[in-house]
């Protein structure tokens, strides 16, 4: 494609859409040429562009790629229209609430050979991006366990879903990504304490296909805010605090001394040095947009693919099923 400027379109100008608009306006090598929302532009995000009525009008504007930030129930119809028109697309998370719809969307983009991504913003937190890089480089050696805690007060913005679909979905996505392995099974317990219809507190114990065990505590009932991911492996642990974009490494002092003893049946664990890394702090949404632009230009290495988004939808459903039925649920991935 060379250095030509990409033409981007955005559909959905609500809470998330306005932030997408701001980032698209500032994105190098990209022009935001068209926006659409059936309800107009409540936050003044369009910045002088005509607000088009629907996805068909957006497509007619002649775009290379689109960002979809409409409510989840409309993802399928909008995404399929864009796929049919040959437009690369990033859909806000979740890909869909319905596994069948998520499968349909994923298949459409794969068959058309288009770049399809899902907007899991948490993955682009500087602390998690750096942790993922270090784990891939072997800093922790073999990964044993990933633990996440996402706790805080009740958000006024949520009406239609519980804490699993709204929040735990982030942890399920980022955990599979950090480990580079999908979920094999989950066991979950949830409760409703705030008088709402949906669960507001959940505890999930999981196992990934590579044997890593996971634990996720997620709720809306905590009087302080916590966003922590702890990855423990043979050579130590990385602790990512995504509220403050901090990353700390705790070395396992025994790992360094025992690596040459191939006969040792168990390498011990003892506290070694800890290092807090200074990170380049960029707004995660900006990183997400750069990653999708780069994918459209041929480097898909840092996007959340629709297939990954589909796996997360399946895992979310398994968590809800497990909590409802009181049993461990295995995640069959169909043909994936």
UniProtKB/TrEMBL annotation:
GO MF annotation list: nucleotide binding
Keyword NAD carried by entry: yes
The cross-references to PANTHER family, in alphabetical order and at most eight, read:
BILIVERDIN REDUCTASE A
**A Pfam short name:** GFO_IDH_MocA_C3
Q: Output this protein's name.
A: Gfo/Idh/MocA family oxidoreductase
The chain positions of domain GFO/IDH/MocA-like oxidoreductase read 129-238
Q: Could you name the domain of life of the organism this protein comes from?
A: Bacteria
Query: What Gene3D superfamilies does the record tag this protein with?
Result: Dihydrodipicolinate Reductase, domain 2, NAD(P)-binding Rossmann-like Domain
The record's keywords, sorted A to Z, are: NAD
Q: Where is the Gfo/Idh/MocA-like oxidoreductase N-terminal domain?
A: 7-120
Q: Which InterPro entries match?
A: Gfo/Idh/MocA-like_OxRdtase_N, Gfo/Idh/MocA_Oxidoreductases, GFO_IDH_MocA-like_dom, NAD(P)-bd_dom_sf
């Amino acid at each position: 494609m060379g250095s030509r400027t990409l033409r981007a379109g955005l559909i959905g100008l609500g809470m998330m859409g306005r932030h997408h608009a701001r980032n698209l306006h500032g994105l190098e090598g990209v022009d935001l040429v068209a926006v659409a929302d059936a309800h107009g532009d409540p936050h003044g995000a369009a910045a002088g562009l005509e607000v088009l009525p629907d996805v068909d009008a957006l497509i007619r504007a002649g775009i290379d790629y689109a960002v979809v930030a409409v409510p989840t129930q409309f993802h399928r119809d909008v995404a399929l229209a864009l796929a049919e028109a040959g437009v690369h697309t990033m859909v806000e998370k979740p890909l869909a609430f319905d596994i069948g719809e998520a499968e349909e969307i994923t298949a459409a983009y794969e068959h058309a050979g288009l770049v399809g991504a899902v907007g899991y913003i948490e993955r682009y937190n500087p602390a998690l991006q750096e942790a993922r890089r270090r784990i891939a480089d072997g800093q922790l050696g073999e990964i044993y366990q990933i633990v996440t805690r996402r706790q805080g007060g009740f958000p006024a913005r949520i009406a239609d879903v519980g804490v699993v679909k709204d929040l735990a979905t982030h942890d399920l996505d980022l955990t599979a990504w950090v480990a580079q392995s999908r979920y094999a099974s989950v066991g979950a317990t949830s409760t409703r304490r705030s008088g709402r219809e949906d669960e507001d507190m959940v505890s999930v114990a999981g196992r990934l296909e590579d044997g890593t065990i996971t634990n996720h505590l997620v709720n809306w009932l905590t009087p302080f805010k916590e966003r922590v991911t702890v990855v423990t492996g043979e050579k130590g642990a990385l602790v990512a605090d995504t509220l403050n974009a901090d990353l700390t490494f705790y070395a396992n002092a025994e790992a360094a001394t025992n690596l040459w003893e191939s006969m040792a049946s168990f390498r011990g664990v003892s506290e070694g040095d800890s290092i807090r890394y200074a990170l380049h702090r960029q707004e995660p949404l900006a990183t997400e947009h750069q990653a999708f632009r780069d994918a459209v230009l041929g480097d898909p290495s840092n996007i959340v693919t629709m297939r990954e988004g589909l796996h997360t939808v399946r895992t979310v459903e398994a968590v809800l099923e497990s909590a409802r039925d009181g049993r461990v649920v295995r995640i069959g991935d169909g043909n994936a």
